[in-house]
Amino acid sequence: MSPSWNQAEAPVRAAERGAPVSQRFSDQLIAVLPRLRRFARGLTGSATEADDLVQAACERALAREHQFQEGTRFDSWMFRIVQTVWIDQLRAREVRKEDTDVAEERLGSDAPVRTIEARLALAEVRRAVQFLPPDQRTTLMLVTVEGLSYKEAADVVGVPVGTIMSRLARARIALQQHLDTGGGSRRSVKNAEAQ
Amino acid sequence: MQKHSDESLVAYLDGELGGAERQHVEAWLAADAGARDRLAELAQSADLLRSAYADIVNETVPGRLIAAARGETGNAAPQHEAEILVLKRPPRRIVVTVPGGGWGIGVAAAAGLFGLVVGGAGSYLGTGLLNTASPAAEQRLAAAAANNTWLDNAAGYYKLAVSAGDSLALDVSANSDAREALQKVNLEKTPNLVPWGLNFRGARLVVVEGKPAVQLVYTTDNKAIGPLTLVIGSSKQPDIQRTFDRRQDVNLLYWRHQGRAYALVGQTDIGYLWGIANDVGWQLDAI
Q1: Which positions in chain B touch A41 (Cβ < 8 Å)?
Q2: ipTM value
Q3: Optimal mutation site among A2, A6, A7, A12, interface B, most CBs of chain B within 10 A
Q4: What is the reported pTM?
Q5: In order of start, what are the domains of chain A with their CATH numbers?
Q6: Of A192, B171, B185, B203, which is most buried, counting CB atoms within 10 Å of its CB?
């Protein structure tokens, strides 16, 4: 067994840095971590990047703890922070993931299928999500996976409900095309982005 | 919104349509077999999507994320490393009287097995050995020294348990009635760590800082976790949150809560230790 941790990585409590964190706030944050990880996994397509994203979001949330309004949904507030940090990271990189590694992967044969569960592994579904443009991917994860209403998703993303509705429809259709046609992934992305 | 569109079908599936719009779509679906097929496809792909991400929420959350949520950062050294401790003379060996009646091994033996001079603080400290300028500083350093001793002992006991393997002498076996023995350290039950793949092998009654303590030994076939021990003893020190430390190749996650000191010890990474410590905390009402 070889421990991966070393003392240089040891944590220091916020209180020791002069920035006490309320227990209640931390508890809320810890409680929502599994869903944040899932949301981030959907956005980034990578377990490691997702955890990095969630960690960055936690740090930002703690720095803005005073901005959270009691009585509002904490998970939605955190989803918004994760999404904002992710967009910042995308802009910083100026590289879209679907233009690089994902484009080289195929989802299956070109033959259409009626029952997609029988042919595609769930990992391939997650890969298909990565072909979607970031705004559609975000909407799809918030509504279809995390179960937010259109209004709640609109609040998280900061757009009108109608925009959520159209983005979601385009995402679902594009995803459907991916799953039906497999190899037509590149075309589907371009179609989705063109709409 | 276009009435006959995928957009309206998706919104219908999501339950987002109002009365008039919903009735309109339902009328469309009733009249159009193609729309019904399309609706079924969309529903199917949505179910598949949810399934694709369902298991992620059941994964163990990495320790670094929990630490981040608690406002801890991974960029700084532990607080105790900042302490500069000056020894007047070489440390003396700690001598502890081992009570009779099955108490396993004393501090000296465990520390001796471990090599005595180990640890992040880099020093073994004893009362009266410190070159301090004020009573407050001396008190603080004495507390740090006691804490280091506690961790050294916990790590030493872990090493002892691992090196002894199957021949480890247990005071309480997994199959016996452990209640009487555990009551000696005011412990009513042992944590169930089977969900982590860890099986309770037994308990050893030990002495830490001259006080009775219990070392719970867990083994597993999971090489990513390996054997773990949980040392629980009484403490008059103030509560502290879970804190990481290390002794050679042994990781420790320790905390104090309501008169008890806990040290989870193993060679697995902090992510596992943190998750298991959470579980222990909930089961023993120790956080």
Answers
A1: 53, 56
A2: 0.73
A3: A12
A4: 0.49
A5: 21-94 (1.10.1740.10), 96-195 (1.10.10.10)
A6: B203
